[in-house]
TrEMBL record, chains A, B:
The lineage of its organism: Bacteria, Pseudomonadati, Thermodesulfobacteriota, Desulfovibrionia, Desulfovibrionales. This is Phenylacetate-coenzyme A ligase. It comes from Desulfovibrio gilichinskyi. The keyword Ligase applies. Pathway: Aromatic compound metabolism; phenylacetate degradation. The keyword Phosphoprotein applies.
Length: 432, 432
């Protein structure tokens, strides 16, 4: 069951399509001031692309590049060919702005419709879009995709919880687009209003607007009695609909007919093997007005090895585990704090807080993880505590490939500043 | 210069088209539970329509009718044919909900594109949509129309004044959609940020989202150094784009190929002559999913007699002067408080406040208007004051066709409650 046959292409056919579209994208991009100059400097044109691997011959594009070209430097067409603009928020500094032609909006709406379909939304569904609209791509992105799929779309926007509940009940809303950090608050409000979430008409929640953990997803599913689906997108690549989970909930399918995804070591720029975490790099293949080539997203994830049970042939990325800027290098290994958080927060014994400490013994980097343990597990039985300590250390070693020291501490013993916990304490520079 | 040749049809051709579409609308409407029953009860079918005047043979539809049919009673098709829903806000009481098929959205976007074109917006313009999105039809209505016309559309949404200014400057925004009550505040903010509105790139403002006076328009034009255009729309008739000013700024052209507009006496239901104020009644001619026939808008306006200089042949309505529910009947004449407000507030001598008093002398209704006069005009020269009094009385008589008594009072002498002035004091019942 798929929306577009591009989702189930044989790998060889897909790569042929990618090569063709990449060449076309390079030709198009050469019409923009930025890429015209960059290609000249790097002696690039579309003829350098023979196989999909040749994408690696193209230079990266960074957020700083986009900023330096603000506002019009990446446009391949005259300004009056464009019909939409989205921009990162903020009034200080240079925003990044993305421009869309009508064809770009159509392509994006098609990708969004395909994405919604992948998680089980159908044209008979009634979708309430509970995210803000405006410059944020999540609102209009889901909105256009939902209409394109033919769903009855309720542009509820953010806020006004009571009205949201009334609309959901009055119109038998079956699908929600809801920000994950709002979803749990909303579940509480539904109960406060006297309704049991199990009795609500909803079935499917799209919660990909913010990075979140598997634990948060499970919590949302339990609290709202709903299936909740993650997705990935960023304004530079249109917005939502770059990669979407399917009903298997085992990673996000990259829509590879429209995007080339690479995962690289953020230090070296070289590809990492499937299964290893690195920085996601994206290239647009179907954007005509403002193609972007090898964009360094700074988002950290990994390709999930193997095939998805759903039958789609596209590569899947795992949930985002942080930003490349957060990366720690210990004993030559790249480690991301979110990897550690995901492991320990999934353990029932662990409380609200933890702290990663980096220090040096002699010339050797060491990592220690202080973990707050819930009171009922913080018992006097040393054997039990040592067992727990060892269990955490082993689980972490399996994930980060370095054995950390683990220190179990009591609830509320890790200091907080401004109510927010500091997650990493790097003592290596201090001691050096 | 027009966007669609429907705007300049000969009256006879237009009426032929209206008759054809009205018959089709009746046939469609008969598929909805509500109209099916209503037509049966009133013995109506499309064959009763021979000329456009026969629209008067159809029963009215009121807001209460819409409420009683909430949510699905007016739909002509199965729910899964619909892709959009807008609803009046509010969590108490029954909202009114309007459903759109994809074809309805396309028709609406075309009407909006035509509307923007009529006030001089072109595809080369850059339009910043500064109204809220969501269930309010103004946001998505203008957004879709602007994209349809081919303008670069910036979905800025409401609020965040500093960011609005930054976007306008960075992207050379030439057209704004701005709520009139926000526009004057915004002008002040622009100056506070150190910019002269005369130096801003904007040229055209769409300010039709709220009823406002000619005085407010002129103020906005002066303060923002912009041409500001009024328009008329309501959710029950899709949203914005029902009637729009042209660059002549002399009334709002009703898009009569899509809507039949009538103006009736709200008491008798009979048509009033052109030029006389009454309640606007609207019939959709191009809506397939949820046609509405002879909808009592409760909005008060008049047809402007004669032809517009722009060459468009459609009827024009004047700005909304209030709600039918506000109507006063004096000596058998219908009077609307906003008519009085418009006259006196346009006079330089008049201050912030006024009060309309209705009372009875013997069996005769009388109307007195107390008018606060600015200090510099409240002089000791009785002759000058009597002259002013007479001038106000004459101007009011010309507008409301009854000669009121006029009492000039000092600044701040009319009592306010909760900071808001009471505009009408009806003493007739008390004394009767
Ligand atoms: Zn799958
Ligand atoms: Zn005109």
């Amino acid at each position: 069951m798929y929306f577009d046959k591009a989702e189930v292409l044989e790998r060889s056919e897909l790569e042929k399509l990618q090569v063709e579209r990449l060449k076309k994208t390079i030709d198009l991009a050469a019409n923009s001031p930025y890429y015209s100059e960059s290609f000249k400097k790097n002696n690039i044109n579309s003829s350098v692309i023979k196989t999909i691997d040749d994408v690696k011959r193209l230079p990266f594009t960074t957020k700083d590049d986009l900023r330096s070209q603000y506002p019009h430097g990446l446009l391949t067409k005259p300004l009056d060919e464009f019909v939409r603009l989205h921009a990162s928020s903020g009034t200080t500094g240079t925003p990044t702005a993305v421009f869309y032609t009508q064809k770009d909006l159509d392509t994006w709406a098609d990708l969004m419709a395909r994405s919604l379909y992948a998680v089980g939304v159908r044209r008979s569904d009634i979708l309430q879009n509970m995210s803000g609209y405006g410059l944020f791509t999540g609102g209009l992105g889901i909105h256009y995709g939902s209409e394109r799929l033919g769903c009855l779309t309720i542009p509820a926007g953010a806020g006004n919880t009571k009205r949201q509940i009334k609309l959901i009940r009055d119109f038998n809303v079956t699908a929600l687009h809801i920000i994950p950090s709002f979803a749990l608050y909303f579940a509480g409000k539904v109960r406060e209003e006297g309704y049991d979430p199990a009795d609500m008409p909803w079935k499917i929640a799209l919660i990909g607007a913010e990075p979140h953990t598997e634990y948060t997803r499970q919590k949302i599913e339990e609290e709202l009695h709903i299936k909740a689906y993650n997705s990935y997108g960023l304004t530079e690549m249109n917005g939502p609909g770059v990669a979407f989970e399917c009903t298997e909930q085992s990673g996000m399918h990259v829509w590879e007919d429209s995007y080339i995804a690479e995962i690289i070591d953020p230090e070296t720029g070289e590809s990492v093997p499937d299964g290893e975490i690195g920085e996601l790099v994206m290239t647009t293949l179907t954007r005509e007005g403002m193609p972007i080539i090898r964009y360094r997203t700074r988002d950290l994830t990994r390709f999930i090895p193997g095939q998805c049970k759903c039958g789609r042939t596209s590569k899947r990325i795992d949930r985002i585990v942080g930003r490349a800027d957060d990366m720690l290098i210990i004993k030559g290994v790249n480690i991301y704090p979110m990897q550690i958080e995901n492991i320990i927060m999934a353990m029932p014994e662990v409380g609200q807080n933890y702290l990663i400490e980096l220090f040096r013994e002699g010339f050797i980097d060491q990592i220690k993880v202080k973990v707050e343990i819930k009171d009922q597990y913080f018992v006097e039985d040393m054997r039990a505590l040592q067992g727990l300590q060892k269990k955490i250390a082993n689980k972490l070693r399996d994930e980060i490939l370095v054995t950390p020291r683990v220190e179990l501490v009591q609830h509320d013993s890790i200091p907080k500043s401004d109510g927010k916990a500091k997650r990493v304490l790097d003592l290596r520079e201090v001691e050096a």
